[in-house]
Amino acid sequence: MWKSLVLALTLVSSSVFAGPKVTFETNLGPFTVELNQEKAPISVANFMKYVDDGSYVGSQFHRVIPNFMAQGGGFDQEMNRLPTYAPITNEATNGLSNKTATIAMARTNDPNSATRQFYINLVDNNFLDYKQRPPGYAVFGEVTQGFNVIQNMAKKPTTAKQGMRDVPVEPIIITAVSVEK
């Protein structure tokens, strides 16, 4: 009985983020995110457009705040804004929480403005969830390998650059992206 219970719990926990696995190579090392197509289909489909078109390669983590999050995907190495597809509908009501190591869509004050930028939570940030702060920020996956790379981003010095704060002094660049389905 215990063996079947452990097996059932293992299957449940391993399927929480059952979706594509995307590995990012950066100049600080690799990390892998597993996406949750079931609870965040719009966000996952949107994110995968940028993965599939290759446009995350050469982009940087342009906003890194220790004990908060690391944000990337929207700017090239020279801090030029990258082209986007149309904004998507906010899926923050999907029940996923902004917990440590989760990935979520960045957006402006308009809840339905997310395009290509994403962030990875360095700590539990449940104040970003729909339940705490409607309309919330939509989580759509989780870092399953290499979270230490994200943590190391937060140890790098930052500066203000082109009107933005918390920009790493030495750019943290996405050098390659691959998908395991």
Automatic annotation (TrEMBL):
<feature type="domain" description="PPIase cyclophilin-type">
    <location>
        <begin position="25"/>
        <end position="179"/>
    </location>
</feature>
<dbReference type="InterPro" id="IPR044665">
    <property type="entry name" value="E_coli_cyclophilin_A-like"/>
</dbReference>
<dbReference type="InterPro" id="IPR029000">
    <property type="entry name" value="Cyclophilin-like_dom_sf"/>
</dbReference>
<keyword id="KW-0413">Isomerase</keyword>
<dbReference type="InterPro" id="IPR024936">
    <property type="entry name" value="Cyclophilin-type_PPIase"/>
</dbReference>
<dbReference type="InterPro" id="IPR002130">
    <property type="entry name" value="Cyclophilin-type_PPIase_dom"/>
</dbReference>
<dbReference type="InterPro" id="IPR020892">
    <property type="entry name" value="Cyclophilin-type_PPIase_CS"/>
</dbReference>
<dbReference type="GO" id="GO:0003755">
    <property type="term" value="F:peptidyl-prolyl cis-trans isomerase activity"/>
</dbReference>
<comment type="similarity">
    <text>Belongs to the cyclophilin-type PPIase family.</text>
</comment>
<feature type="signal peptide">
    <location>
        <begin position="1"/>
        <end position="18"/>
    </location>
</feature>
<comment type="function">
    <text>PPIases accelerate the folding of proteins. It catalyzes the cis-trans isomerization of proline imidic peptide bonds in oligopeptides.</text>
</comment>
<keyword id="KW-0732">Signal</keyword>
<keyword id="KW-0697">Rotamase</keyword>
<protein>
    <recommendedName>
        <fullName>Peptidyl-prolyl cis-trans isomerase</fullName>
        <ecNumber>5.2.1.8</ecNumber>
    </recommendedName>
</protein>
<dbReference type="Pfam" id="PF00160">
    <property type="entry name" value="Pro_isomerase"/>
</dbReference>
